[in-house]
Design a protein that fits this description.
Elements: H1 9-30, H2 34-45, H3 53-88, H4 90-102, H5 107-118, H6 124-142, H7 146-163, H8 168-177, H9 181-206, H10 234-257, H11 263-271, H12 274-291, H13 298-331, H14 335-345, H15 352-365, H16 368-379, H17 383-386, H18 390-400, H19 410-419, H20 423-450
């Protein structure tokens, strides 16, 4: 029989609620860093009456260690790929390719599709900083508002950043619930593409009605001028993103279609091992840098890109470890089964529980990454009782973590400030598109779940 931290359901439930309340309160009220805000209530949980502290320590160390060992290197590699795309001009090249694909008459759609791709590897706020001049120029050339031009892009980048690996948040959440990353990439891409398109439709309807003129300082500039010639080749710009995704997706397909011990299956599983697949992405990113002449020597790569990736990954890795520890601690209490069973008894579809937890955590903290990791950590111990697959739970939590971006979100303020919108215009545009995109993506998740695909 598995050891439990406490066999008192009331104590466990109070502790469960207290951890969530203290975590969200420290972040929202006192602006604590999420690592400290999550660690403190977890440690305080060990002082609750009837808690077996020996079992508590063992569960914490097991949950933290096992989660970190499975995901830390992968998160660093994914962040390093994002650094390469940011520094080489690949982000702009991908955007220009979408403009050519759909034509200049559909610039807002092109930006939305570009955001869908860019969000797979680059942090959303970084992506918008890079593309902001292009958005203003596009709005000036077509005579539309910034709301009409930028809203689809803002929503799409946030969706794929929140839902589809190899960005850190979904990688971390997938590790916490032990989901198949290949399946998350496949189905996450489907649901976020639907959500991105619905966000673009929202922008088409609402954007022209929201006063938000582009900046005149960009007048006279061209979308594709001389700077475009200095951008890296198209294929090399896409390669660091798409090659790892194909390798990981191929391993999931081989695992499903081929029997154990099959030579092709074994090879595909190794090639699709996230460490190997993203390692190939990093190699391609280095080649991209050399081909684009964006670095002078290997010292720049070693000292700047890798160090930035390590710094950017550290917080995500530590928070992921704490999320795994919290999940393991909750698993060792009777609380999770009680909550899950009550959810089912109330007639609430089980697929909605991680979604609601993601919405709550995001609304209070303003962080998509915190939202999806928190929701995944709280849901992971309940999967058996809820009857949810890890993939369904993770995608549901991720969709919830997008809703709604407003004044407590750093991404909201980056987009609002650079686009020159008023607060009201930004709330309607960017708050609205994250609501529409997250909800639409969740509808697609529910549909996949209903069909038994996840």
């Amino acid at each position: 029989m598995e050891e439990t931290i406490t066999d008192q359901p009331v104590v466990a439930l109070v502790g469960f609620v207290a951890v969530i309340v203290v975590l969200l309160f420290l972040i929202a009220r006192y602006k604590w860093h999420v690592f400290a805000a999550l660690l403190l209530p977890i440690v305080l949980l060990g002082f609750a009456p009837t808690v077996d502290r020996t079992v508590f320590i063992e569960a914490f160390e097991k949950g933290f260690g096992e989660t970190i060992q499975s995901i830390a290197v992968v998160i660093v590699l994914g962040t390093l790929i994002g650094e390469s795309l940011r520094n080489t001009g690949a982000v702009e090249r991908i955007t220009h390719s979408m403009l050519r694909l759909v034509g200049k008459r559909n610039m807002s759609l092109a930006l939305t599709l570009a955001g869908f791709i860019i969000g797979l590897a680059v942090f959303s706020d970084v992506g918008y900083v890079i593309l902001n001049p292009l958005v203003h120029v596009a709005a000036l050339e077509t005579g539309v508002t910034m709301s009409a031009m930028a809203t689809g892009l803002v929503g799409a980048m946030q969706l794929t950043h929140a839902v589809v690996p190899p960005t850190p948040g979904p990688l971390a959440a997938a590790a916490v619930v032990e989901a198949d990353i290949g399946l998350i990439i496949l189905y996450g891409s489907i649901v976020t593409l639907f959500g991105s398109v619905m966000g673009w439709v929202y922008a088409r309807i609402v954007g022209p009605r929201i006063p938000s003129p582009p900046s005149e300082e960009y007048r006279g500039q061209r979308i594709e001028g001389g700077a475009d010639r200095a951008l890296p080749p198209l294929g090399w710009s896409y390669a660091p993103i798409l090659v790892p995704l194909v390798l990981i997706g191929g391993s999931s397909a081989a695992d499903f279609a081929l029997p154990e011990g099959h030579a092709v299956r074994d090879l595909a599983m190794f090639l699709g091992w996230p460490v190997f697949a993203l390692g190939i992405g990093v190699v391609l990113a280095y080649i991209l840098a050399w081909r684009s002449n964006s670095v002078d020597d290997s010292h720049t790569l070693r000292e700047t890109w890798v160090e930035n990736a390590l710094k950017g990954s550290a917080m995500i890795i530590m928070v992921t470890g704490l999320g795994g520890a919290l999940s393991e601690l909750l698993q060792a209490t009777p609380t999770v089964d009680m909550i899950a069973q009550n959810t089912l008894d109330l007639g609430i579809p089980s697929i909605l529980l991680p979604f609601m937890l993601g919405v709550l955590a995001n609304l209070i903290t303003g962080s998509t990454t915190v939202g999806v990791i928190t929701a995944a950590s709280l849901t992971a111990p309940m999967l058996g009782t809820l009857g949810l697959s890890p993939e369904a739970a993770m995608l549901s939590a991720a969709c919830g973590s997008v809703i709604i971006k407003y004044v407590n979100s750093s991404y909201f303020w980056v987009c609002t400030t650079l686009s020159g919108m008023s607060l009201r215009a930004a709330l309607l545009s960017y708050g609205g598109v994250t609501l529409v995109g997250g909800t639409s993506s969740m509808v697609a998740v529910v549909a996949l779940w209903g069909m038994g695909l996840i």
